[in-house]
Amino acid sequence: MPADQEPERGNENAAQAVEMLKAVVDGATYDAVASRFGVTRTAVERRIKAIAARLSKEVGIEGLNADGVAFVQRLRQHRAAILVALAGFEPPAPFGPRHHRVVASDEITQAAQRIKGRSARPWHDQSMFYMLFATGARPLEIARIEVRDYLGTDGSVRRASELRAEAAITGKPRPLYFTSTRLDDALAAYLSERVEQGQGVTTGSGYRGLDPHSCLFLSPAGLGFAIKAFGADGQRRYLCRPILEAYRKLFRYADLRDVTPLSARHTVAARLYERGADEEQVGVLLGISGRSAVRDLFPKRRPAMSELVHDLV
Q1: pTM for this structure?
Q2: What is the distance between the alpha carbons of residues 297 and 263, in angstroms, rounded to a whole number?
Q3: Residue ranges in the chain modelled with pLDDT below 70
Q4: How far is Cα 148 from Cα 166, in angstroms, rounded to an integer?
């Protein structure tokens, strides 16, 4: 799978897919469109190909058959015909919004306990699990987090940290907060184990004896998660299959059905909304630019009218 980060499926609505297609045929790169809409390059590529294929099949694009829609250059060569076809195109239902499960707080607690009881590396795995729900970071970003991002020189937790530009999928730094007691407890135990096992340690006295530039999460062999780079036409993409597999394993241990790393991001967004956050604040924390993109990808729950009017007086 030629993914640039990790599989992340947002609300695949037709209006957004059409706008993505227009942007690409106007000359924008997949990466630029991904940044604009706050999704991955893979998501952009998938949506554009899907809607272009439907457009070719159901309306027809003069000079372009269904086999040609997979190639960006061909799409751009037929820009005028595509825009004409879009004017009379009514997208079918499959492009409608998808539901992403929000995980309740008690579910997260119970899931972490199951992981602890079933894992061969309970503190490591609990820490990775909590990291998703405590920060809203994507798996690839978590694979890139280093000891120095979590700890200060004196060994204290950096409550208000930063996801470095080189660690963020968007290539832009953003706030990273470590304010979860459960995450702290699990990481404290895990990092102590690392010191005892001599994994990623240093001779200095800072950072609890750990190398500040070592990855926060290491394999049993003391290595970070392997990240592969892909590139074509000047585009750089990245994939970390090992951490995706690790999270699939953790969700199995946790007995959480229909839950993915994206579900964790939806859960974080829902918690933030419950506490009064607006779209801009949610976007800052999750690394999504633009209120409209946040509304599309992480919409607020709309209460039923019966809930709104209950016991008004």
Answers
A1: 0.70
A2: 12
A3: 1-14, 55-74, 78, 84-99, 230-236
A4: 14
Q: What is the pLDDT of residues 160-215, one digit of tens each?
A: 999 999 999 888 999 999 999 999 999 999 999 999 999 999 988 899 999 999 99
Rounded distance, CA 202 to CA 200, Å? 7
Within a domain: 274: no
Does any domain span residue 116? Answer: yes
Q: Which two tokens stand for residue 24?
A: 């690409």
Terminal Cα distance for the chain, rounded: 56
| 178 close to 135: Cβ distance less than 8 angstroms | yes
Residues 46 and 130 in one domain: no
CA gyration radius, the chain: 22
CATH for 241: 1.10.443
Q: What DSSP string runs through 203-271?
A: SSSSGGGB-TTSBSS--TTS-PPP-EEEEETTEEEEE-HHHHHHHHHHHHHHT-TT--HHHHHHHHHHH
Assess whether 69 and 132 both reside in one domain.
no
Residue found by looking up tokens 């604040």 in the block? 281
Same domain for 113 and 68: no
Q: What is the pLDDT of residue 149?
A: 98
Backbone angles phi, psi at 146, to 5 degrees: -110, 165
SS3 label, residue 181: helix
Q: State residue 91's pLDDT score.
A: 54
- Domain of residue 214, residue span: 105-254
